[in-house]
Write a structure and sequence with these properties.
Blueprint lengths: L2 H12 L2 H16 L3 H26 L4 H5 L8 E9 L5 E9 L4 E8 L10 E9 L6 E7 L6 E7 L19 E13 L14 E14 L7 E8 L7 E7 L3 E7 L10 E6 L4 E2 L14 E4 L5 E6 L8 E13 L12 E4 L17 E11 L2
Antiparallel strand pairs: 1-8, 2-3, 3-6, 4-5, 4-7, 5-6, 7-8, 9-10, 10-11, 11-15, 12-13, 12-16, 14-15, 16-18, 17-18
Helix pairs in contact: 1-3, 2-3
Length: 375
């Protein structure tokens, strides 16, 4: 497919047909009144106009936002200022325009322009590393590009599970309103559809290079971050108490007492959503199918701190639930309420993908230690 055909095809997929038809009708009318040479110039102008219209439409719909393309829930971006940049491959240019960070997460988004149009049917990845201006430790980010039929596509670089070499879970300085980060994006490669055994990333290299940036990031005090002050106490013998809760799109933090089991393992944490599902709950009744699973855990008896693979839409959360003794069994669990448990019949046990010794009816049971409504 020629470049002009490719642009017009992509444009037709992403803009109102009436706009394209109008541009083309004007071009044809003008071409009839011009000579052959001027006709070629006008065709080039039509292609440029169509690409411009496509780009404007994509921006208007948020398609050229890395965060809009890569995340399942909307999040607000913090400020990004590029203080310095250098590259050994100027054919690829990165526009870094979005950031989101806290003590546990760093996400950087924007657009990347490449010499060729990336195939929307393929998966493109990028590797990157960064360190704070006053931090000698190097951390890694995984990048994903989102092809859209043009040579400028959204991307997201994420480091949601980083720890330092001493086993600590906090990055120094990430609580500050502003941080300075030195970022190096190393390469763009094709993600293999299937991986068997060892594989060499150079075999899938699309664009090599080192793109170096010094960034000043401003933390967004997100409108979608909710802070509650307790105490919130459970009614069970475990005496679980939450004194303060902070829920943002990527992180849940709870400070309180008796937040761990006696064997120092964390209780189950679910977000009860307004649609009746339970986000973060991996299987069973009301299980979450959106991929919002816990990617990072730094919990102790007096503090729960977990981060999510995908952002949570805080406005859709009804309550935070701490639960224990989650399991499956037969009809005998139907009477578990008298022992402080909640149980539900499982409509399709085969869909649970768990092994049970139960024949016939299957029930799911858990003990709710604390449910904190979000108001």
């Amino acid at each position: 497919m020629k470049l002009s055909d490719m642009i017009l095809h992509a444009t037709a997929q992403d803009t109102a047909s009436g706009d394209i038809d109008h541009i083309l009708s004007l071009a044809h009318a003008q071409a009839k009144e011009s000579n052959h040479k001027r006709g070629h110039l006008r065709i080039a102008a039509v292609i440029a106009a169509a690409l411009c219209l496509l780009t404007v439409t994509l921006y208007a719909t948020g398609a050229l936002s890395g965060f809009a393309a890569g995340f399942t829930a909307p999040i607000s971006s913090g400020g990004v200022q590029v203080l310095a940049q250098a590259s050994d491959n100027p054919d690829v240019t990165w526009a870094i325009t979005e950031s989101w960070y806290d003590s546990y997460n760093l996400h950087i988004g924007g657009t990347v322009t490449t010499p060729d149009i990336l195939d929307p049917e393929k998966s493109y990845k990028a590797t990157a590393l960064f360190h704070g201006a006053n931090d000698g430790e190097t951390y890694y980010l995984d990048g994903t590009l989102y092809p859209n039929g043009t040579d400028t596509v959204p991307f997201v670089l994420s480091a949601p599970t980083v720890t330092d070499n001493e086993g600590g879970k906090f990055r120094p300085g990430w609580e500050k309103e502003k941080i300075k980060v030195k970022l190096t994006i190393e390469q763009i490669y094709l993600e293999p559809k299937t991986i068997t055994g060892q594989w060499n990333i150079t075999d899938y290299l699309v664009y090599p290079g080192n793109w170096n940036y010094t960034l000043s990031l401003t933390q967004q005090e997100h409108r979608d971050t909710l802070t509650l002050t307790g105490p919130f106490s459970g009614t069970t013998a475990e005496a679980v108490t939450a004194n303060q809760i902070k829920l943002s799109p990527f992180t849940l933090e709870i400070d309180g007492e008796h937040l761990m089991r006696s064997n120092h393992t964390r209780y189950n944490i679910w977000l009860k959503m307004k649609d009746g599902t339970y986000a973060l709950k991996g299987r069973g009744m009301f299980r979450d199918a959106s991929g919002n699973y816990i990617a990072f855990d730094d919990s102790a008896d007096d503090r729960i701190a977990v981060s999510f693979v995908q952002p949570i839409d805080v406005s859709h959360v009804e309550a935070i639930v701490l639960a224990d003794a989650h399991g499956f069994g037969g009809a005998e669990l139907a009477d578990a309420a008298e022992f402080g448990f909640i149980s539900y019949p499982v409509a399709n046990p085969a869909a649970l993908n768990v092994i049970t010794d139960t024949e016939g009816e299957v029930w799911e049971m858990w003990k709710v230690l604390l449910e904190i409504p979000l108001k």
